[in-house]
Design goal:
Length: about 170
């Protein structure tokens, strides 16, 4: 479920022929029973494709590591990873500004898909032009209940339905 957080949370530029470079840093954050539980799910894979004017970010659910194997297994069950093995963030290419130099920031209206159900999200992004492309940071909040996911609870510890995704990565023109 925290994998959902990840998925995405990243943004891409509004140009064709863009590819990820380097190793992306993608996290999904969740809290439970205030002060009792903080979860940082780290995505081991993060993929980017352009399809019909939309940048599609994809994270395999099974690549998200919360630091505890049993919690990873529970998360996969909550998000129905066997039926829906990927988390998606879909961002219209024209919703992102890629500056020729300097920095740009804004909010992109996107679609977040978790457990096979889509919901709109607003992704705050920052883009910085660098010598060989752009450094990008994107982040958004999401509510797992909008994706048909029951609130996770185990041994009396309940995870809050509001979660946060953050991605930092670099892109370049191909």
């Amino acid at each position: 479920m925290f994998a959902t957080l990840l998925a995405l949370a990243a943004l891409a530029p509004a140009r064709a022929g863009i590819a990820l470079t380097g190793k992306p840093d993608v996290h999904f954050y969740a809290e439970g029973n205030p002060g009792a539980l903080d979860i940082d799910g780290v995505a081991g894979q993060f993929l980017l494709q352009e399809h019909e004017g939309v940048y599609v970010f994809r994270v395999p659910v099974k690549s998200v590591d919360t630091g505890i194997e049993l919690r990873n297994e529970h998360m996969g069950g909550y998000v129905h990873a066997e039926e829906h093995p990927f988390i998606f963030l879909k961002v219209p290419a024209d919703g992102i500004e890629l500056p020729a130099e300097g920095k740009a920031s804004g909010v992109a209206h996107a679609t977040f898909e978790l457990a096979g159900q889509e919901a709109p999200v607003d992704v705050k992004y920052e883009v910085k032009a660098v010598k060989d492309g752009w450094k990008v940071k994107g982040e958004f909040d999401f509510d797992v209940t909008k994706h048909g996911i029951e609130i996770p609870s185990y041994l009396g510890v309940t995870v809050e339905p509001q979660m946060h995704a953050v991605a930092r990565f670099q892109i370049a023109e191909e």
